[in-house]
Design goal:
heterodimer; A: 428 residues; 8-stranded mixed sheet; 38% helix; B: 271 residues; alpha/beta; Rossmann fold; two-stranded antiparallel ribbon; 7 helices; binds flavin-adenine dinucleotide
Chain lengths: 428, 271
């Protein structure tokens, strides 16, 4: 039996599947190893993916991929108790779509297999093998070894293999967030009606404030074909200090929220899932993204952008996997899989890509996310202002009056308010 | 010639993930992932031990829809040599009689097997009919609750097995070929290994047989061949739980807990 491959990819998420697809399509002998049962079975995510990078990787993406709805409406809500202030943006362009990550990932793995990659599931890689001089030469699973010129680590956020190699430190709570999600089935027509969208079009909705009990983080709602995904992301470090109730209770509250619950009250909860995600990619990036015979892609490489109003993880993962696949092809052509060569073929273009540039630019979100004040006071302030403007009984205040008195109620001076606003604009 | 062992595998909905529809009283199977019947893994493990001890060749068989290929890949991943999926629309709706008939005929077609191992029962129907009925169709000796194969004597063509009952152990010697029902939870099924999984991809060890290969009379198959009638299905209503959290240091909390349990009459003694 063959025991040596050109490339072994560890982890069949969007990053690993795309790495395997690109490398196999270019004629390399590729093994893709996944510990879960079937492709994508261990996958949890919010629900919206940006399409452009995927089109670049997969021919015929728009036609063949399991796309549920193209996002035509973006909503952001500040929630305070049962009140909320919502901003909606609607456009006839759609840059992103909703889907189930399990479906999208198994589609990607199918493509990789059709391109010639060997896919094995239900197999956990226990360690990445190095020879005496520290070069990566393969993997170990339950004492069995499989060799390859290049190993691509696509193990996701929980990077036990990289820890073992000493390439990253143990993950700290301050670096990760916990996401939980429910999928509720309400039917295709009802979604079109209740979210007022045309067939095939959908909504992406982010909510901040009381939905996380005022903890840093937020809630999301995405419309799929005949279901909605709802869920929360909370930042572990602050959650540990502030959390007042179990997170599944918070999800329950979101599901039964008076202003939201009626959208899906008659639906069935099909699925409940929870998973970690890097809080902010930039700080989570390993010191180096390649070593002799090794490249790191996707969440494991810290490639997740969270701007507060949108998540980019899947497309970044896929694109980095694709780039590593191409780098593998070139490195093997040149007969040099040394650290220097892999860093110049993979790490350098990646660091110069829009992905890492965006991660760097949005670093301010870290500051934001470690400031619980924002998540408690500002949604309340916004709702307070709106209430003063709209819940009229007697005289109608001006906007400024409403803002001033609402700020006072929440113990914020106008000066402080202005400073915070300035910082938010600068940081985001 | 080396020992030849067959293992029966049923592809079942993961009952832990199945929910009951209280309105219709039926199982909601939609979207529920299927798994290999967990008790069949005891039979797989025992067969793999025979492979190690006697160099047996082990074949898995399953009568199931095509999705069961995943389950057969799983047991090959554990170390089974090859597998036959018996799959045809005419088998749909079979009760245990029709199912055991198809399995028996599959064994007949395989021909030269020495032992056929089955799980004790399934998690979705748990009749434990199949192994006994297969033995009946083939008129072969049958022993169930087997937890150990003590010895295979290939010259005398006998197998000595142990079975564990509630209060005793028993040993039996059977003539081969023989049918064994393996006691559930009697073995520690081994995990999947990467080289065995690679064999699935590189060697195509799974065959699919339809009724074209078996050539069985449709009157004995599917609903037509199934005399069983399900007259009624009821379900056990869920008992609402009285969730209570008892605060305080453990020593006091335990006292309160015991008091509560006494009040409820849960404890078997006077308080
Ligand atoms: C609640 C939540 C909401 C999110 N929402 C969005 C969103 O709306 N849009 C978006 O683009 N992104 C979102 N993300 C982020 C996105 O899910 C990730 O960025 C993306 O899945 C990363 O892909 P990956 O391939 O790097 O890792 P993963 O998807 O985590 O895949 C890693 C794979 O490796 C396997 N594996 C790990 N270790 C081993 C091992 N030792 N041996 C074998 N296999 C192994 C795992 O089983 C897994 O299948 C969200 C994340 C969360 C948690
Ligand atoms: C009227 C009627 C219609 C039915 N229609 C269907 C149907 O359409 N589809 C369906 O899936 N079930 C159907 N069933 C259920 C099906 O007949 C039984 O589940 C099946 O005969 C096995 O019985 P059991 O699960 O109780 O297995 P048990 O006898 O408890 O199983 C013991 C062992 O036998 C082996 N075994 C059991 N089944 C198989 C198999 N299929 N292949 C290989 N080995 C096996 C396993 O090793 C198992 O551990 C129907 C039942 C009735 C009464």
């Amino acid at each position: 039996m063959e025991t040596k491959f050109d490339v072994i990819v560890v982890g069949a998420g969007p990053a690993g599947a795309s790495a395997a697809y690109t490398a196999a399509k270019r004629g390399l002998k590729v093994l893709l190893v996944e510990r879960g049962r079937g492709a994508g079975s261990k996958q949890v995510f919010g629900g919206r993916v940006y399409a452009a990078p995927l089109r670049e990787i997969y021919e015929g993406f728009d036609k063949e991929a399991p796309i549920h709805r193209w996002v035509r409406k973006e909503r952001v809500s500040l929630v305070d108790g049962n009140r909320m202030v919502t901003v909606e943006y609607e456009s006839d362009q759609a840059a992103s779509f909703t889907t189930y990550l399990t479906q999208l990932t198994s589609w990607m793995v199918d493509r990789a297999v059709n391109a010639g990659a060997v896919f094995v599931d239900e197999v956990r890689v226990d360690s990445i093998l190095r020879d005496g001089s520290g070069r990566v030469v393969g993997i170990d699973s339950g004492g069995e070894r499989v060799y390859a010129d290049i190993v691509i680590d696509a193990e996701g956020v929980n990077r036990l293999l990289l820890e073992k190699l000493g390439l990253v430190e143990k993950t700290r709570p301050s670096q990760v967030a916990l996401g939980v999600k429910e999928v509720i089935k309400i039917g295709e027509d009802k979604i079109n009606e209740r979210f007022s969208v045309a067939p095939g079009e959908g909504v992406s909705w982010v909510l901040v404030g009381a939905v996380t009990g005022g903890m840093p983080g937020g809630a999301f709602i995405y419309t799929n074909k005949d279901t909605v995904s709802i869920g929360l992301v909370v930042y572990l470090e602050t959650a540990v200090e502030m959390v007042e109730e179990p997170i599944h209770v918070m999800v329950e509250k979101l599901r039964t929220h008076p202003a939201l619950g009626r959208l899906w009250a008659d639906g069935d909860v099909m699925e409940y899932a929870a998973r970690l995600t890097p809080e902010s990619g930039y700080r989570y990036m390993p010191r180096k993204l390649a070593a002799h015979g090794l490249m790191v892609v996707g969440d494991a490489a810290g490639l997740l952008l969270n701007t507060g109003y949108t998540f980019r993880g899947v497309d970044y993962a896929a694109l980095s996997g694709h780039m590593a696949g191409e780098a593998a092809v070139k490195a093997l052509e040149q007969g040099d899989v040394g650290e220097e060569n892999l860093r110049s073929l993979y790490e350098k273009p990646l660091l110069e890509s829009f992905m890492v540039r965006d991660l760097r630019r949005h670093r301010g979100i870290e500051w934001f996310m470690s400031n619980p004040e924002f998540f408690k006071k500002y949604p309340a302030l916004a709702a307070g202002v709106a209430s003063k403007l709209f819940d009229l009984e007697g005289e109608a205040p001006t906007l400024l009056d409403a803002l001033r008195s609402s700020a006072k109620e929440h113990g914020l001076s106008m000066f402080r308010l202005a400073m915070d606003m300035f910082r938010v604009v600068r940081k985001l | 010639m080396s020992l030849k062992v067959v293992v029966g595998i049923k592809w079942v909905p993961n009952t832990q993930a199945v929910r009951f529809d209280p309105k219709t009283g039926t199982l909601i199977r939609e979207g529920v992932p299927s798994i290999v019947n967990p008790h069949d893994l005891d039979a797989v493990e025992l067969a793999l031990q025979l492979k190690e001890r006697y160099g047996a060749k082990v074949t898995a068989i399953s009568m199931a829809p095509p999705s069961a290929i995943k389950g057969l890949e799983h047991v090959i991943g554990m170390g089974i040599d090859d597998a036959i999926l018996v799959s045809d629309r005419v088998f749909a709706g079979s009760d245990t009689l029709a199912t055991s008939y198809v399995i028996a005929q599959t064994l007949k077609r395989i021909g030269d097997f020495d032992l056929a191992l089955f799980g004790q029962e399934t998690i979705d129907s748990s009749t434990a009919h199949i192994p006994a009925q297969v033995a009946g169709w083939l008129e072969l000796p049958y022993m169930y609750y087997v937890d150990r194969v003590e010895e295979v004597d290939e010259k005398q063509r006998t197998v000595t097995v142990r079975r564990m009952l509630e209060d005793r152990l028993e040993w039996y010697q059977l003539k081969m070929p023989a049918i064994l029902g393996v006691a559930m939870k009697s073995q520690k099924p081994r995990p999947v290994s990467i080289y065995n999984k690679l064999r699935v991809r590189m060697e195509n060890p799974i065959q699919v047989w339809s009724n074209k290969e078996l050539g069985l009379d449709p009157r004995c198959l599917g609903l037509k061949g199934s005399p069983t009638l399900v007259s009624k299905v009821t379900w056990t209503p869920e008992v609402p739980r009285k969730k209570q959290v008892i605060e305080g240091p453990p020593s006091e909390a335990v006292k309160k807990l015991v008091e509560k349990l006494c009040e409820e009459g849960v404890l078997p003694f006077e308080c």
